[in-house]
């Protein structure tokens, strides 16, 4: 077994630790400035990314000192022992009290650096992070109508305060290179251009999860069907097959929840394990959770081969788990509760099934809006007839006092707040849920455009705002309020 021995001098304790080009090339396989490798302390298990700095005299950078400190630190005349394992390099500090110290010192003679082949009994390799790794990793796809509570479910049911969570959003322009990584140019301080693989968020979280086996990691992919997910994952989608049981014979040694099959990707493997030949797997302490809205249009289809690798979970559109303060909040000044409005509208949507494809997916989600969108700002109420129009007219002719200008600002701020509900909810009902049969719910004989709908709703007061709906619809709201 080849090992690298580095004798510590006093200077090394306070400065960066130097290394020779011969060791860099022959032992670490490093030829370019700022290349890196994953290293961990043998006793502590602490892992870090060690960067090789070649701009001047070759030195170790990055997390090398943190790893050594986690091992208990180093003293003058100690020996750093580097061993290349299957997936990373292991560092051990050999102090003068260690029985091997004199043996290694005699091998080195007067040299500070030595790469040598030794018997295994001088070093017992410890590359196995899997024995202490958490085994809760899974792939989950949450789906449901917009606002049904998918993000709430992730936060409250799949994560704890200790969980390390990364979030990203798929979209039509999102690519494999964005997700996994890509080769990009790098310009050094002396103007030299080199090309190196720059890891994407998926590769980065694999690296973090691999090196921290006792920590739970979650990668959340919002709107997973808004991007071409199979193309974005590429060959990596094979990793979504998770190991489900420990075999009595010929088990691979990985814990339950690890990718059942490893893939070959030299760029990813070098970042994650420090070894381009290492098979890439999703570690068992990393879960991937995707979300998608079932009502979204112009999105990509998730094929069967992709979907079967996920645990599918429908998030029910219900107020059972909703905070009462939100469910019972009244919509502006109408005295109609959000829950009552939502339930009645959804009944109409479901009942409209014969005239609308996938009507169930068009329902209003309980979390479709926020509590703040329902709150009424009473500063909009005019102090005299046509106050708002009068102030705007006087503003045009620059005849406003400071007091009147402040009053106009207040009215505008209030109207902006009070428009949030119609701009979100009524627009969705008009443009999406009832796009092809608006007459089912809206009074289209009087209000033939979305502009006229929102204008009336915004300018009306109290329960009269609902006159934009068909009489039977507005009556159902009023009945709930009685």
Give a structural overview.
The protein is α/β, with parallel strands linked by helices and 482 residues long. It folds into three domains: 2-122, At1g16640 B3 domain (Beta Barrel); 131-314, 3-Layer(aba) Sandwich (Rossmann fold); 324-481, no CATH class. 32% of the residues lie in helices and 17% in strands. It contains 18 helices and 14 strands. The protein has helices at residues 10-14, 21-28, 64-70, 101-108, 150-158, 176-179, 201-211, 229-233, 266-273, 304-307, 324-327, 338-351, 371-374, 387-396, 402-418, 420-433, 450-459, 471-481, and strands at 2-7, 36-41, 47-53, 59-62, 79-84, 89-94, 113-117, 139-144, 164-169, 181-187, 193-199, 217-222, 286-293, 311-314. It has a seven-stranded mixed β-sheet with strand order 4-3-2-6-5-1-7, with helices on both faces. Strand 5 and strand 6 form a beta hairpin. Helix 12 runs antiparallel to helix 18. The longest helix has 17 residues, at 402-418. It is elongated, with a radius of gyration of 32 Å. The N and C termini lie far apart (84 Å). The relative contact order is 0.09. The model has no long low-confidence stretch (mean pLDDT 88). This is AAA domain (Dynein-related subfamily). It comes from Eubacterium oxidoreducens. InterPro entries: ATPase_dyneun-rel_AAA (IPR011704), Methyl-DNA_Rec/Restrict_Enz (IPR052934), P-loop_NTPase (IPR027417).
Short description:
It comes from Eubacterium oxidoreducens. The protein has helices spanning 10-14, 21-28, 64-70, 101-108, 150-158, 176-179, 201-211, 229-233, 266-273, 304-307, 324-327, 338-351, 371-374, 387-396, 402-418, 420-433, 450-459, 471-481; strands at 2-7, 36-41, 47-53, 59-62, 79-84, 89-94, 113-117, 139-144, 164-169, 181-187, 193-199, 217-222, 286-293, 311-314.
């Amino acid at each position: 077994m080849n090992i690298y021995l580095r004798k510590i001098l006093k200077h090394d304790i306070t400065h960066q630790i130097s290394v020779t080009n011969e060791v860099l090339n022959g032992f670490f396989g490093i030829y370019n400035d700022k290349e890196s490798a994953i290293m961990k302390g043998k006793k502590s298990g602490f892992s870090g990314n060690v960067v090789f700095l070649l701009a001047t005299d070759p030195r170790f950078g990055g997390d090398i000192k943190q790893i050594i400190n986690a091992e208990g630190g180093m003293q003058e005349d100690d020996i750093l022992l580097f061993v290349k394992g299957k997936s990373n390099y292991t560092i051990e500090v050999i102090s003068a009290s260690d029985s091997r110290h004199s043996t290694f010192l005699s091998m080195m003679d007067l040299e500070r650096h030595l790469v040598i082949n030794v018997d295994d009994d001088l070093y017992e390799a410890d590359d196995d992070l899997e024995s202490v790794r958490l085994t809760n990793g899974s792939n989950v796809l949450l789906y449901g109508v917009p606002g049904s509570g998918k993000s709430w479910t992730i936060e409250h049911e799949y994560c704890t305060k200790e969980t390390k969570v990364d979030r990203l959003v798929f979209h039509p322009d999102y690519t494999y290179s964005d997700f996994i990584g890509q080769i990009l140019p790098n310009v050094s301080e002396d103007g030299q251009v080199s090309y190196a693989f720059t890891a994407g968020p998926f590769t980065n979280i694999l690296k973090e999860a691999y090196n921290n086996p006792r920590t739970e990691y979650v990668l959340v992919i919002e709107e997973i069907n808004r991007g071409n997910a199979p193309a974005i994952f590429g060959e990596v989608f094979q990793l979504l097959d998770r190991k489900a049981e420990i075999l009595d014979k010929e088990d691979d040694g990985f814990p339950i929840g690890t990718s059942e099959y490893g893939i070959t990707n030299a760029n990813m493997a070098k970042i994650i394990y420090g070894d381009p030949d290492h098979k890439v797997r999703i570690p068992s302490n990393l879960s991937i959770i995707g979300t998608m809205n079932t009502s979204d249009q112009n999105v990509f289809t998730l094929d069967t081969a992709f979907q079967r690798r996920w645990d599918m979970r429908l998030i029910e559109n219900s107020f059972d788990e909703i905070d009462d303060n939100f469910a019972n909040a009244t919509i502006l000044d109408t005295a109609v509760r959000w829950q009552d409005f939502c339930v009645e509208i959804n009944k109409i949507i479901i009942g409209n099934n014969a005239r609308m494809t996938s009507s169930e997916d068009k329902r209003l989600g309980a979390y479709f809006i926020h509590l703040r969108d329902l709150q009424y700002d009473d500063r909009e109420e005019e102090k005299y007839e046509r106050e708002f129009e009068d102030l705007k007219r006087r503003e045009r002719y620059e005849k406003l006092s400071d007091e009147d200008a402040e009053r106009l600002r207040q009215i505008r701020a209030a109207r902006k707040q009070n428009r949030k509900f119609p701009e979100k909810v009524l627009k969705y009902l008009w443009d999406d849920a009832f796009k092809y049969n608006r007459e089912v719910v809206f009074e289209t004989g009087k209000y033939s455009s979305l502009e006229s709908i929102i204008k009336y709703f915004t300018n009306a007061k109290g329960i009269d705002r609902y006159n934009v709906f068909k009489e039977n619809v507005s009556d159902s709201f009023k009945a709930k309020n009685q």
